[in-house]
Design brief:
By secondary structure, the chain is mainly alpha-helical. About 80% of the residues lie in helices and about 0% in strands.
Length: about 100
């Protein structure tokens, strides 16, 4: 199921659809940029919450994905920790190279 999800994410037609929607939003924003701004904060928050709920529902209803959650969680934790550690290490290296205190 996870492989199917990853393959679906990289489907060229889906990527084209996403790009069309993004460009359409940018074009509308450009056309209406000089008009009174509309506060979309509540709409955006509601949409994000609906997407998170949908993601949780899909995960909860997929037994195979639920069974792999401990392994996925450990991998995610490891990736996060390594990202933080190497970010700090390379920041220190860059600071020393640029002679920034």
């Amino acid at each position: 199921m996870l492989v199917k999800l990853v393959l679906t994410m990289f489907n060229p037609m889906i990527m084209i659809d996403l790009m069309v929607v993004l460009v359409a939003g940018m074009a509308l924003g450009f056309v209406f940029r000089n008009r009174k701004r509309v506060n979309l904060e509540k709409v955006t928050l509601s949409t994000i919450l609906a997407l998170i709920f949908s993601l949780g529902f899909n995960i909860g209803s997929d037994n195979e994905l639920l069974a792999s959650m401990p392994r996925v969680g450990v991998n995610a934790l490891l990736i996060s920790l390594l990202t933080i550690v190497f970010s700090v290490v390379f920041l220190e290296i860059a600071r020393k190279a640029a002679r920034i205190k």
